[in-house]
UniProtKB/TrEMBL annotation:
InterPro entries: HTH_LacI, LacI/GalR-like_sensor, Lambda_DNA-bd_dom_sf, Peripla_BP_I. It comes from the Bacteria. Keywords: DNA-binding, Transcription, Transcription regulation. Residues 2-58 form the HTH lacI-type domain. This is LacI family transcriptional regulator. GO terms for molecular function: DNA-binding transcription factor activity; transcription cis-regulatory region binding.
Amino acid sequence: MTTLKDVAQHVGVSISTVSRVVNNEATRSVNSETRRKIWDAVKELGYQSNKGNRHAVKGGQHTPTSTEAVRIGCIVAVTQNKYNHPYFSGILEGIEKSLLNYGCELSYVYTGDDLRNPGVINRILHDHPVDGIILVEGLDPSLYKMIRKSISHVIGVDVSDPGIARVTYDRVEAAKVAVKHLVEKGHKRIAFIGGSGLSQDMEREKRYRGYREALREADIMYRPEWALNSHWEVEESYQLTKQLLKNEEERPSAIFAASDMMAIAAMRAVNECGLRIPDDVAIVGIDNIEFSSYSSPPLSTIHIPKLEIGQIAAKLLVDYIHNKMPIPVKITVPFEFIARQST
C-alpha cells in the first residue's frame, strides 16, 4: 500500500507538504510546479488517502465499522521542513500504516515550521476538528495547553507529560550505552554533539545527561568546551566539529553525537581535517537512520525502532478513542547498539 512517505520520497519533498496538497489545504502555499509533481506521483504510485480507504481489507476482512469515522491529526515538532527528516519519517510511516489498517483517516501532518502560521493553528484548534492527535516530540507550552484543551485524545511520542499516554525509548540509557562503548574501546577524551530542547537548557536534554552520567561512572573528567550545542542543525554540527579538531594537542579521540544526522556531519568534518575514522577520532550516533550504514566508514549507532514507535502510538490512540485504555500508559520500546567501522 502506497503511503505519504512513498509519495514524498518520489517527489523529494517533506511528508507534510504532500499532506497539505492531497488534503487541499490552503493554510500554507505550495507552488504550482510542486503540486503538479505531487499529483503526478499520486497517480503514478496509486496513492489513496485514508479518507478513501476506510473500507481497507485486513486479513481478508473489512476493518471494524466502529473505526470508520475516526479522524486523526499528527504534529511532528521538528523544525527542519526542507527535507524528509530520516528519523521522524520512520515514525510517520508507522503511524500512517497502522491507521490505514484500522480504517482511520489521517487528516493532516504538520511540522514545527507549519505551526508558525496562525492559519494552521486555527485549523487544528477550530476549523478541522479531529478525534485525536499524535504529537511527536514537544511543543511550546502555551500551544500544547491549547491542544490539550481543544482535542479530547492526545498521544505523545517522546513527550514528557505524564497526563497523556506516551511512547518513548530510554534516551538517557541509550546515550550511556553509546558512550560506554567508546570507553570500552579505550577512549577517555570524549566529546558530545547535540542540542537542547524547547527549554534551551542542555542540562535537561536526556542524551546529554546520559553522556554526562557515563563519563562520571567511568571516572572521566567532563570538559564543557567539548560539549557542542549544534541546535540540531547539520551545518552547525559540521562547523563546530571542525573548530573542535583544530587544536591538535587538546582534541578529543572520540565523539558521541546525539543523532546520526549530527554524527554524519561530524564525520565529514573529521575527514576534511585530514584525520582518520576511527584511528584518530571514533564516532558513534543514535537513531540508526538508513544513511548510517552507507556513511564512510559505516557509523556505529543505537538502533531506535522508529516504525514500531509510530505503529504503537497509532494503536494507543485508536484504543483510547474507543475507551479501551482507561489510564494514560507509558510504553518504553527497547533499543539496540550496532557496532560498525566508525568505532
